[in-house]
Amino acid sequence: MLKKRLSEQLKFIIEIDKLKAVWRQSYLTDGSRKENSAEHSWHLALMVCVLQEYVPEEINLLHVLKMVLIHDLVEIDAGDTYCYDLAGRAQQAEKERKAAARIFNILPADQAQKLTALWLEFETGVTPEARYAAALDRLQPLLLNYASQGKSWQEHQIEKQQVLERNALIKDSSPVLWDYAWQLFQEAVEKGYLTE
Amino acid sequence: MLKKRLSEQLKFIIEIDKLKAVWRQSYLTDGSRKENSAEHSWHLALMVCVLQEYVPEEINLLHVLKMVLIHDLVEIDAGDTYCYDLAGRAQQAEKERKAAARIFNILPADQAQKLTALWLEFETGVTPEARYAAALDRLQPLLLNYASQGKSWQEHQIEKQQVLERNALIKDSSPVLWDYAWQLFQEAVEKGYLTE
Lengths: 196, 196
Prior knowledge:
The structure is a homodimer.
Chain A: H1 4-15, E1 23-27, E2 34-36, H2 37-51, H3 61-70, H4 75-78, H5 86-104, H6 109-124, H7 128-147, H8 151-155, H9 160-167, H10 170-173, H11 175-190
Antiparallel strand pairs in A: 1-2
Helix pairs in contact in A: 2-3, 2-7, 3-6, 3-7, 6-7, 7-11, 9-11
């Protein structure tokens, strides 16, 4: 007989497979297709490992990794709202709260509580770990957009100012990465990937 | 001017985007399509977080997470060889060594060295962390195969004995998870997902 606890954990593991079917607006670097939120979360997790040295504050790396691995799970129910769709984003918060309540609670109560707290920490964005996770969550699509010659920006007629406002929080975690992002914006405008 | 070190790290981050284009033989749980190695790595990383309590040995969770996040990067050059393709697997080792040498060395030397060592640790499979990573690397496709009613097993005419041999190492990390895997095999055979 399978114990209730393990059975709940396995049910959660099967459930989260659905994140592979949530499509984002960013294209892969070669522009061949859009990426999904599971791939994005993996990419982000590896970036977290590689770029930690650019955060001046002390960071608990394990905590950030767990955070980025689960940060998009709510999209299984709530979907991915394009970051420049401001009307959509306003309604999104309530949908995501409900999604978190359903999805994390598939797990045994102690684990559900921990992952919910981790997700709320990410959403609130106050701790150094959450600010680092949020900074890379902005930088990752920026890198993909630049590499795919602004394909997604052009599809949605996004302008430089919108991208700058959206990404300014990178600075709150890492001035070095923000300098780099700034340079990338300039180049994206010069190359015509992004309009002024 | 972008510093050489950050430039190398960003080049690596762009390079690994290619793992999203490496397709595995496992189908998603709903059977709609096969999964790629980036999604698989993400799924595995979350399983690592959720199932740690079933490993009797002491485990450094951060170490396992880094390991599963990078364990398939060599497939960018070497491709994914189906686990039951024994002839293919024999040639794979050399291809993967070359791939590791190229891909990890895009990073600055200190990081390249660490990730190469981590990948070798996974491949060698001796430490508790590597055994746990390997166990879940077997369990994850088993769960997907069962959920998708053995779609991939049937496509490749895989038999129960092959799956049992392939997955026996789960036991070396976690007797509880092995008991569960064993139960899943029995059910897979009873339901006709897997032939005797």
